[in-house]
């Protein structure tokens, strides 16, 4: 079965100080490691105005190194996001990590002493949906009633070029 997913989050300004809010976020990239997960593309050789997927570079991933990088850095990124959020990791109701690999998710949770009951996973249902994995998991758990109003959610992801991000919000 093939699944094509797209995710988007729409934010709206609110005058209520205690309503839905973003506590903090942390974004960045480790460009010196961008060759661990990348598409090799020769900009001089190919013209993007003429779409032809077959002639562009293919995705390359050094899975072992991406795994090592992710399990050691996602906890640091999450801690940096929490650092200025005026909450503790224990205050977070649910964690949604990029749904790339269950071993990564379980190892990150273990390294942070987060029980898997607080980690939302839909990898078994949809596999790795790339950039849509976090919005898809978030939406699905709102729909099924697991995520409720005023829950504090932490979302962390990583991707190509060894970019990463973490946001902590009240739903």
What would you say this structure looks like, in words?
- Keywords: Acyltransferase, Transferase.
- This is Oxoacyl-ACP synthase.
- One of its GO terms (molecular function) is acyltransferase activity.
- The chain is of the alpha+beta class and about 170 residues long.
- It has a single domain, classed as 3-Layer(aba) Sandwich (Peroxisomal Thiolase, Chain A, domain 1).
- Helix content is about 25%, strand content about 20%.
- It is built from four helices and six strands; from the N terminus they run E-E-E-H-E-H-H-H-E-E.
- Helix 1 crosses helix 2.
- The radius of gyration is 17 Å and the shape is globular.
- It starts with 20 loop residues before the first strand and ends with a strand.
- The relative contact order is 0.24.
Task: Offer a few descriptive terms.
single chain; 171 residues; alpha+beta; Peroxisomal Thiolase, Chain A, domain 1; 6 strands; Oxoacyl-ACP synthase; acyltransferase
Brief rundown of the structure:
By secondary structure, the protein is an alpha+beta fold. It is built from four helices and six strands, in the order βββαβαααββ. It has a single domain, classed as 3-Layer(aba) Sandwich (Peroxisomal Thiolase, Chain A, domain 1), CATH 3.40.47.
Largest sheet: 4 strands, mixed
Write down the overall mean pLDDT. Answer: 83
Taking the alpha carbons of the first and last residues, their distance comes to 32 Å
What is the share of helical residues?
Answer: 25-40%
Structural category is alpha+beta
The strand line-up of the biggest sheet is: 1-6-5-4
Q: Which runs of at least 5 residues are low in confidence (pLDDT < 50)?
A: none
Radius of gyration from the CA trace?
Answer: 17 Å
Strand content: 15-25%
- The figure for the number of domains is 1
- Classify the fold: give the CATH topology: Peroxisomal Thiolase, Chain A, domain 1
Second rung of CATH, namely the architecture? 3-Layer(aba) Sandwich
| Count, helices | 4
Question: Order of SSEs, N→C?
Answer: EEEHEHHHEE
Oligomer designation? single chain
Based on DSSP secondary structure assignment, what is the total number of beta strands? Answer: 6
Basic shape? globular
**Can you tell me the CATH class?**
Alpha Beta
The CATH superfamily bears the name Thiolase/Chalcone synthase
């Amino acid at each position: 079965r093939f699944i094509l997913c797209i995710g988007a989050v729409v934010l709206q300004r609110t005058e209520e100080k205690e309503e839905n809010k973003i506590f903090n976020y942390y974004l960045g990239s480790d460009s010196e490691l961008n060759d661990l997960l990348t598409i090799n593309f020769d900009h001089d050789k190919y013209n993007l105005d003429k779409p032809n997927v077959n002639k562009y570079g293919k995705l390359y991933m050094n899975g072992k190194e991406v795994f090592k990088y992710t399990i050691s850095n996602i906890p640091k990124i999450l801690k940096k996001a929490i650092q200025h959020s005026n909450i503790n990791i224990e205050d977070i109701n649910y964690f949604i990590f990029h749904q790339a690999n269950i071993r990564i998710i379980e190892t990150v949770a273990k390294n942070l002493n987060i029980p898997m009951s607080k980690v939302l996973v839909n990898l078994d249902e949809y596999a790795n949906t790339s950039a849509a994995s976090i919005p898809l998991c978030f939406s699905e758990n709102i729909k099924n009633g697991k995520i409720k109003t005023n829950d504090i959610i932490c979302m962390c992801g990583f991707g190509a070029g060894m970019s990463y991000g973490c946001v902590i919000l009240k739903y």
